[in-house]
Predict the structure of MaoC domain-containing protein dehydratase.
Amino acid sequence: MKLSYEDFELGRRFTLGPRTVTAAEIIEFAREFDPQPMHVDEAAGRASILGGLAASGWHTSALFMRMMADSFLVDSFSQGAPGVDFMEWRKPVLASDTLSGHSTVVETRALRSKPGIGMVKFRHEVENQKNELVCVSENSIMFVMREVLEKTA
Amino acid sequence: MKLSYEDFELGRRFTLGPRTVTAAEIIEFAREFDPQPMHVDEAAGRASILGGLAASGWHTSALFMRMMADSFLVDSFSQGAPGVDFMEWRKPVLASDTLSGHSTVVETRALRSKPGIGMVKFRHEVENQKNELVCVSENSIMFVMREVLEKTA
């Protein structure tokens, strides 16, 4: 059964990944969205403070989004998100790194402005194969409530 | 001349875009990173609270990143960013929307932990062709200081 607002109980935790990031992917994303030298060129990456060919932070975020979609979002009555409270790129994500993590429900509330929709706040943590946190974020996502789905069923 | 830390004076404003977003791009990005129905299917988008085939918020963010790269980052001594303070996706970005905006320097400081590198905080505002803000964000980016560049020149 697809997840509705009520399924996101406080403390519920969803597993993200694993997902390995290749050098080719890093360069392809960066060429399109973030063509800074350390994201498109191996030697420039090594010479930078990132220490190697490193994914754009936005690429890391997009990969985290995909892991979240596969973990629980596509199989839910999600209505999208109004934004991101914060996003920390704590360590560079380098070519061949394997990412995994989890999203934990930290707050839930019914939306007064949108009856039948509830907002779920998550804390997301993504780490690399050395168990170093590479990305930490919190954001809220809107989900349809079960009562609405039952009425329209 | 490429921009170094000292060039990011308080209040300096950089123009972003314009950049038109196509339906094909929205679907391509979403299939790879955010395959929720409203981002990959026209009818599902119209049926959702987004009101049409809508770009993933992460796609909007990646497009904003590209506009920033083209505006000033690629032509600078950027050393990357430690994250995003916040990112608000205020309005859906729909197929055929044209985005533009600006990044304004709101804070600068030398990094004690990384001598020769300074942190510049920006406020970013992106709007659509109707002058509606679609994306508002603040984040800090690291830049090499001119004194370092002169020493190594």
Q: What stands out?
A: The two ends of chain B are 13 Å apart (CA to CA). Chain B has one domain: 5-152. The CA atoms of residues 35 and 129 of chain B lie 26 Å apart. The domain at 5-152 of chain B is CATH 3.10.129.10 (Thiol Ester Dehydrase; Chain A).
